[in-house]
Amino acid sequence: MKFPFYDSPDTATIICCHIMENQTPILYVSHDEDDGMWQFLCGEAHGIDEAKLVSLKWVFDLDNSVSALKDMPCGYYAERKTQDDELDN
């Protein structure tokens, strides 16, 4: 599948350690208004020490379903209950 985001594939994004280390599904995505950064989280509360930096392409390669959010503007978020659900914002 072709990389769909308007941001560069090497754009730094935040991902929680639960997704990175435990293959927990991405259930919450935000596109921050203040700096335009993407965050891909498992839906649980996190401390700063649980945040990891990866490229946007790394996240896309992990879970292609995030491509549905390619047009999500800064300041918005999307969430779903399970990995099989659509990401709704």
Please characterize this protein's 3D structure.
The structure is a single chain. The chain has 89 residues and is an alpha+beta fold. It has helices spanning 17-22, 56-62, and strands at residues 12-16, 28-31, 38-41, 51-55, 76-79. The chain has a 5-stranded mixed beta sheet with strand order 4-1-3-2-5. The longest helix has 7 residues, at 56-62. The chain is globular and about 30 Å long.
Summarize the structure.
This protein is of the alpha+beta class and 89 residues long. Helices cover 15% and strands 25% of the residues. The longest helix has 7 residues.
Tags for this entry?
89 residues; alpha+beta; five-stranded mixed sheet; 2 helices; 15% helix
Assembly of the depicted chains: single chain
- Radius of gyration, CA atoms, in whole angstroms: 12 Å
Q: Gap between N and C termini, in Å?
A: 23 Å
| Silhouette | globular
Q: How many strands, which pairing sense, and closed or not: the largest β-sheet?
A: 5 strands, mixed
Helix content: 10-25%
Count structural domains. 1
Q: What is the element layout, followed by pairings?
A:
Blueprint: E1 12-16, H1 17-22, E2 28-31, E3 38-41, E4 51-55, H2 56-62, E5 76-79
Parallel strand pairs: 1-3
Antiparallel strand pairs: 1-4, 2-3, 2-5
